[in-house]
Amino acid sequence: MENKRILIIGAGSYSKKYSSIKGIGTCLVERLAREKNLSVLFTYYKSKDGARKLVKEMGLNHPDFDVDCLRFNSLNYESEWEKFESQLTKFGTPYIFVYNSGLRFYKESLSDSEKKATMKVNYTCPVFLVEKIGEKMHQKQIRGKIVLTSSVLAGKHHPFLEDYCLTKSLLNQYVQEREDYWRNKGIDIKVISPDVTRTPMTEERIDYYEEEAKRGKRPRITSPKEIAEEIINLCLKIK
Q: Residues 216-226, buried b or exposed e (16+ Cβ, 10 A)?
């Protein structure tokens, strides 16, 4: 995988409690740094300090690795698209696009605004970006790859994550329905659906999930490095 531009939506997150816990996007950037001749642009929203830390560490440990970041709010994706597109033009059309943002609320009952926010971040924003960026790939005749993380399995045994699972299921459905459409445009689109993964998003309930795993009520807790490696394996198939 050489001379390729990679765009990642959602990276730079680190646990504030446990130094060993990182987000999937963060682990993906770290893993990509081991490849040659790559340019990576990733976005963050709240994790500004983590994003800058990630860029700095990659620069120190992998001086030949071209990586940069910018802020992007998936909740306001339509209003932010023009500015984001301008940055994307400078970066260049990506060969690989990974959407890794997600939103969940650990509450028994969500407010209307929380339900709308969950739908935006987990479904409408990624679909919007897939359509926009996928078309750019097609126009540039790039035989690219789009990978979406959709951890619908992570909440299937949890009583408070119905809206999260619904929005992720809709994303899975979109990919199933549009896979042939994008393939005809030379773009391979895939979904990776991990079960519970040890990330900053799940750390507040990680003890609960680990106890369930010990009692055989769910599979073992997945490492974000494993998911990053799975994404890499998909990306390496690009010609």
A: eebeebbbbbe
